[in-house]
Every structure is written in structure tokens, then in C-alpha cells.
Amino acid sequence: MRHVQGRARRAGAALAAVLTWAGLLAGCTSGSTGGIDFGGLGKPPAPEDVIRVLPDDNSKGVRQDSRFRVRVPSGRLESVKVVKSQDAQDTPVSGHISDDGLRWEPDEGRLALAAKYTVDVVALDGHGRRSARHTTFTTYVPDERFIGYVSPENRSTVGTGMIVSLEFNREIEHRTAVERAVHVTSKPPVEIRPHWFGKGRLDFRPERYWKPGTQVTVALRLRDVEGAPGVYGLQYKTFSFTVGRSQVSLVDAAKHTMQVRREGELLATVPITAGAPRTTTYNGRMVVSEMLEVTRMNSRTVGFGGEYDIPDVPHAMRLTDSGTFLHGNYWAPDAPGKVNVSHGCVGLRDVKGGGSDTPAGWFFDRSLIGDVVEVVHSNDKKVAPDNGLGGWNMGWKEWKAGSAVK
Q: What is the pLDDT of residues 349-363, one digit of tens each?
């Protein structure tokens, strides 16, 4: 703020020259004002007596809900300029002077946290004498912050089943305030509603799958929002993504097949192997949330014993947080299309190292994060709405009921 203070000093010097010149025009005498007669008004008052600024000059640790205003007991305010310095960025603070000219208040309802405010005021007192005042104060810097980890990625192209999901790094107690600080919009416009899963996750989706070509914008206005007692948001950013073509795949666990439909038309029917009788695959609609050319799969990481540890599973596409994948299978090449042998995943025939001309490679190359894979006729329950991006398994009325804003 060194350059702002420099301007203030120059403005103060110019104003002092104006006041001196005004005094000379009023006539000079040998009175108590050092030879200057201010029209019989005596010595002009100090700027702090003419212009009252709250919070006080050089205040530190000012709370977010503190009163911020500028006023004069009489006369009128001519100009009030306020600059907020936060995160190495200067931003003008808008405000308004009352009709009687005696008060100025900011348009923002609350002060920003961890910010420095610089206030420059010019006013006339009740006798028409001009005065100027320059003050600063700094606001409270919280020890605790929260952020939301957002999916999908900024500027990504996703499938029509994508759900906007925010995972917070700590529990949110003031869910209403946080929900109101997140804005999800689309072009063309469609109704988009939020749903809380516990205190740590907030998802957004429309009633039905997105239309291809939709542009979705997510605005996070979490900075300085109190998410829990003494815990404030850090983020203030906007990102967007594009909805690509529609692709929905239907896995029939009983028939050992997967129908792949593009824009509603059948693209291919692919043989699959699903969960074995003792380790069945979830039913329901699941959304691809991660795509890996190759990954390691260890049964101990998903709650099983030491049944398997495969270091190079090819063409792996995550469907749930609990460990359900659709992936290539090279260790049981005769299973797809005939028998269910997996531990809950959906397997497509592949070769070691992953082949582009195999069913798994073909499907992987034609898939996007956000594509929908629905499983039917499996001897298992429906996947939970909060297990991965499983929100499509919840009815619209129930989904809307999960908002904290009533």
C-alpha cells in the first residue's frame, strides 16, 4: 500500500495549500492562529474532530461483523474512498453517502477477513471549512480455514451424468451459510439443486442428466464465510466445464453383457463379468469419476482379506468410492460373457498391459469422466447415493429435501 499512502500524503499537502490560501484570502491578523484569521471562526478543528471513522485509525484484529462507517457531526461528506487489500490485491470498496450528507456506509454487509482497509475522506464542517482524513485498519486473521475440493476439473469435458461435488476438508456446522456461498448455473439454464451428505460433502445436479453441449459454471464465494465456529472459508474463484456427448451403458449382471448407447442409439454390446455370487456388484446408476490407464488393485484396501493383489490392472474406470471399478481383465479371459467371477467390479476382456483393440481398450477410449454405467439384475442392493457420484439413485423430491436452505 506504499503507493496509496504516497498519494494520500500528496493529497494532504495539496489540501494544506488550499487551506492556507483560503486563510490568506480571509485576511491576516496577529491573532492566536499565528497571524491568520479564519473569518472570526478561530483555529480550524483537527480532522479527527470533523471526520469520524469507525473502526478507529490503526485498529487491528477488527471482527468481521464490526460496524464500518464514516460520519460528520455537521456539514457534509464530499468524498469517501476505501480500498481493501487482501491476498496481495487491492479492491475498491463501494459504499453510499446518506441523503443528508452526514454518513457513509459500505455496500458490503460484512468486513473481509485478513484484509487491510484504507480510508480517505474529504468533508466540509458546519462552517464550510474543508478537511481531509486518512485512516487504516486491519481485520481479524482467523487461525482456522476450510476449503472445498471440487469435481469435475476446471475446463474439462464430461459426460451427461456428471454431478458437481464439493468435499470439505473439515465438518461444516453452518451449512446454510456455506450452501448460499456456492452458485452453480448453466447455459442453457436448467434447475440445479444442492444436496448435503452429512457435514462434509455438498453435491449439485439437475433433475435429469445434462443435455449435451451444456456449459456449467461453479462460483465459490466461500472466502470469509463461517463454516463452523471460528472456522472461515478461503476460496473465492469461478470455474466451468462442458457437457459432451451422451453415453450411457447398461450392465446386465445376469446376462453377462453391457449395452453401450451413444445419444440413445446402441453403439455396441460388450461381454462382461460381474461380481461372483459371494461378492456381487451393486445395482443402480454409477458415474465414472476417475480413469486410469493402469493401476494396482489390492483386496485389503477395499475391506477384503488377501484374495488378490494385481499390480497392473489395465483400463480402470472408478464407479464408486468404495472400490467398484469397470476395468480390463486379462487373468480370467474366458469369464466375460459367460460367468461372474469378480469381487464386485465389472470386468471386460483385455490383455496384459492393455490392448487398444480389446473390448476394455475400445470402451476406455470412448469414455469420459461423467459417463453413466447402470447395473441391473445383480443379486445385491442399490448403490448408496453418496458412494461415488451415486446421486442419480435418489428421487428428485428427496434430493431437493437435502438442501440446508429451507
A: 999 999 999 999 999
